[in-house]
Write a structure and sequence with these properties.
Structural class: alpha/beta
Strand content: 15-25%
Mean pLDDT: 91
Helix content: 25-40%
Radius of gyration: 19 Å
Number of strands: 16
Strand order of the largest sheet: 3-2-1-4-5-6-15
Order of helices and strands: EHEHEHEHEHHEHEHEEEEHEHHHEEHEHE
Length: 353
Amino acid sequence: MTFVLYGATGTTGTLIAEAAVRRGHRPILAGRSPERLRPLAERLGLDWAAAATDDPAALDGLVARAPLTLLTAGPFTATSAPVLQACLRAGSHYLDVANETGVFEAVYARDTDARRRGVTLLPGAGFGVTATDTLARHVADQLPGALRLELTVLLYTAGTSPGAAANRLSIAAGGGLARHGGALVPARLGAGARRVATPAGRSSVVPLPTGDLSAVHRTTGIGDITVSMPVGLPPALARLLLPLLPRIAGRRAARERAADRPRTPLPPADPARRSLIGARAVTADGRSIQAWLQTGEGYAYTAEAAVRAAETVLVGTDPGAHSPGALLGADFALDIPGVRRLGTEPAPSAPRT
């Protein structure tokens, strides 16, 4: 299978290119820099093409070369819209590995356009949100009528790429968000910080405004959703200090410093470490169910998940804008090496301290 891989020379893009080749595909490696694309393409024996996201004519020519474009270049708040628009013009499927709520909402808003053009739009084809959203679908399917869903994400990565660091700052700069009554509403960053029990022990976590807030709602229809991740602070201190983060992250200089960090290969992953995702669904009368998903290192999971998601779309899916859980199914992640779902069972009440 052939698809355009835009952002191929970044940390995530290169891992996806390598995974695609291992699975017998020949992606067209794309991005802004011929100097960086050429050696990667030569190493993998692939075609390449350079095009800037602010050059509509070049983008149109690029995405027209294949039936699907997978976007891995961030910040997605800047790159998603022009690549998505080019895909709609060309009648090409669009996937990305974004995890920004605003990107998801913008993609979902193009559902009618995608159906008219006969193409599939799938944001969040990486760790966030294929692992989280498919697990959310699993627990929601086990507890019909759930009104609240809590996700806890303990992500292990061997390092942090410049692009990922810049994307995290972009998310933080927007401040807190929550899903209440089906709507996205502003929330004080740090509110809801608490200690939770996980298969790896107790951890301090804090709700964060990730794309899961959009994808999980689209998949399950559940109106109240939180997505929490570890924070290296006691909950009381997190509630005090994290409201200051949007002011710092919103500074353009901070985001530029993160994005301009030298690109270095990720160190070898620790084979003993795992990523964990928990999903807990709750009904109005207090019944609840929870499950955990265990995966390997986050970048490696993203590479495998993104390629497999592209395969699914290229084989044939309904046109429109989709969430991973709805399009790929509750068991999608279980086919990825090193992934297993831990027991699904009634959940104890989560203490808040």
